[in-house]
TrEMBL record:
This is Hydrophobic protein OSR8-like. Its main location: membrane. Belongs to the UPF0057 (PMP3) family. One of its GO terms (cellular component) is membrane. The chain crosses the membrane at residues 7-23, 29-55. It comes from Phoenix dactylifera. The keyword Transmembrane helix applies. The lineage of its organism: Eukaryota, Viridiplantae, Streptophyta, Embryophyta, Tracheophyta.
Length: 72
């Protein structure tokens, strides 16, 4: 993913935290739901969590871990 896209996601996360997480992880993800609840409870916790999720959590790794079959 390009640096420009990451910058725009972080900017969206600062302005409207669930929107930045939505762009990165999608609407029905656990990260989006947590961010939405935190933003409803308080803007600052939602913003901090959104920036953390965008910077630190890799959505592709999460999908590979849970949706690919594991063969012995």
């Amino acid at each position: 993913m390009g640096l420009c896209c990451r910058f725009l996601e972080i900017l969206c996360a600062i302005l409207l935290p669930p929107l930045g997480v939505f762009f990165r992880h999608g609407c029905c993800s656990l990260e989006f739901c947590i961010c939405l609840v935190l933003t409803i409870l308080g803007y600052i916790p939602g913003m901090i969590y959104a920036v953390y999720v965008i910077v630190a959590v890799d959505p592709d790794h999460h999908r590979r871990e849970y949706y690919e079959p594991i063969y012995p």
